[in-house]
Amino acid sequence: MMTRMSWAVVGSAAAGVATLALAGASLSAQQQDFSQVQIKATKIAPSFYTLDGQGGTIGALVGPDGVFLVDSQFAPLTDKIVAAVKQISDRPIKFLVNTHVHGDHTGGNENLGKMGVIIMARPELRARLVKPNPAANGTPAPSAPAPALPTITYTTPIMVHMDGEDIRLIPIPAAHTDGDTLVFFPGQDVLMMGDYFRTLGYPNIDRANGGSLKGMIDGLQAAIDLAKPTTKVVPGHGAMTDRAGLVSHREMIIAIRDKVAPLVAQGKTLEEVVASKPTAAFDAKVPMPGATGDRFIGQLYAELKK
Question: Whose CB among 20, 212, 242, 302 lies 3.0–4.6 Å from 14's, allowing a Cys bridge?
């Protein structure tokens, strides 16, 4: 059941192929040079913009009540993000929702939290910010500071009424991670997917952070069920698409799964499964696949070996 919430009131084995943990993303941010990154705002609906810089795509609903952001990219980019928001709205940023825990989507939380922005997310995401996975070498990762932590969490869908929009925050259990949220702006006809859907490279099941194959397939179906043919579907990474793009992506995952599953059942090793090239039918269609195909095969292998 949808809970209503007013903005005014709220004021090389499996682990090797799993995607980077929060600690790894934080380390990556420390090593990158963000000085040349520019934030590009693109209007995709009457009151909705995407902001692209480095990291996951940000969504921004603008209106008289203030600005509602989806994700925050990396901490060093916050000033540029805030400056870009000021170019599209003269109202303050009021709310931020995190679609999942990775640092290219939550890295700016602390800065925005210190500005008084109310942060919302799944409790699983908050728990992983408090206690991140250790680094690849086993070194414990520090807890996120208090201003970076969501102050509102939800385990069932909630609705935020703001700027004439009924923003729906929909938990997606164990898809890309165990703390994913699908964000739907029905009045703008926009879906913000986070990283459980991407149009750049192959899918990424972050098993180290609680992701799962079943959750990803089910989560994509949930988005398909919400979308209309005209809906603008914004992935965590890559170009915007539509409902048909969601359908094709889900069908691709199932097709590759169905190639990997019998090989796993036959006792094939991961190396043998990769060598069989189960993604071959899609390699020319997936933008910038790089090594993501082998990574995805490894994730499928680990899921199907369970």
Answer: 302
Segment 126-155 mean pLDDT = 95
**Could you give the angle at the alpha carbon of 276 between the alpha carbons of 275 and 281, nearest 5°?**
120
As given in the structure block, the two tokens for residue 19 are: 């995607």
Domain around 61: 3-242
Cβ atoms < 10 Å from Cβ of 131: 14
Mean pLDDT, residues 287-302 taken together: 97
Query: pLDDT tens digits for 29-67?
Result: 556 889 999 999 999 999 999 999 999 999 999 999 999
Nearest to residue 16, comparing CAs of 109, 187, 136, 113?
A: 136
Average pLDDT of span 232-256? 98
276 inside domain: no
CATH number at residue 58: 3.60.15.10
Number of domains in the chain: 1
- CA distances for 64 relative to 47, 101, 191, 192, angstroms: 10, 29, 21, 21
